[in-house]
Amino acid sequence: MLQPTPLVIVTTVLVLVTFAIEAARMTRMLRRMRVLLLAILLVYGWSTPGLYLWSGGFSPTREGLWLGFLQVVRLVGVLTSLQWLLRSLAREAMFGGIYLLAAPLGLLGVNRQRWALRMTLTMDFAERLLAERQDWRALWAHISQPLDRAWLEPMDVTLQIRPLSVPQRALLMLLLVLIVLTLVFFHQILP
Fold first, then answer.
1. pLDDT tens-digit series, residues 59-114
2. Which of 88, 82, 112 has the alpha carbon at shortest distance from 100?
3. What is the reported pTM?
4. Are 34 and 100 spatial neighbours (Cβ–Cβ below 8 Å)?
5. What is the radius of gyration, based on Cα positions, of the chain?
6. Each residue of 3-12: b (16+ CB within 10 Å) or e?
7. What is the distance between the alpha carbons of residues 132 and 141, in angstroms, rounded to a whole number?
8. How do residues 115-148 score in pLDDT, each as one tens digit?
9. Would you kindly state where each structural domain of the chain is located, as residue ranges?
10. β partners of residue 52
């Protein structure tokens, strides 16, 4: 929702504050995302019509690089906000929240307890796997091999399910109304 200048300023401040508090975690996150961020910039730069930066057949456009830069800033802002969420919530509280937010999946016949448990176990497995320092080839080889017994040991998982407070319920209702209004608006403007 932010225009480009406030977006860049807010994201820069958020990243700097997060670097001051959690430099190692931010560095690790940005290092893992560097290829995706560069790919976004390149795709926008070379596929968006506009004014070419130099003459020749293989030149990016000024508008494309600007739009790619804005997408990169948005993604870094979202990832930095996610770092704050992961820092402030215990894993059990986060998955308890996911369990509560998955209530509409019950209307589709999805067992949300099983879904939340699978999400918890998957995140735990990914966290343990990424905690080991290894390059992508070793990580791929590790994923491709069958699991050893240590990974198959039973583990206790608890979901802390707390009822939603009145402000949380109001926020969810507001989000639902905004989603419905957005869908109605787009339905009216699209043929």
1. 899 999 999 999 999 999 988 888 887 777 777 777 777 787 777 778 888 888 88
2. 112
3. 0.65
4. no
5. 21
6. eeeeebeebe
7. 13
8. 877 877 777 777 666 666 667 677 677 777 776 6
9. 4-88, 92-189
10. 61
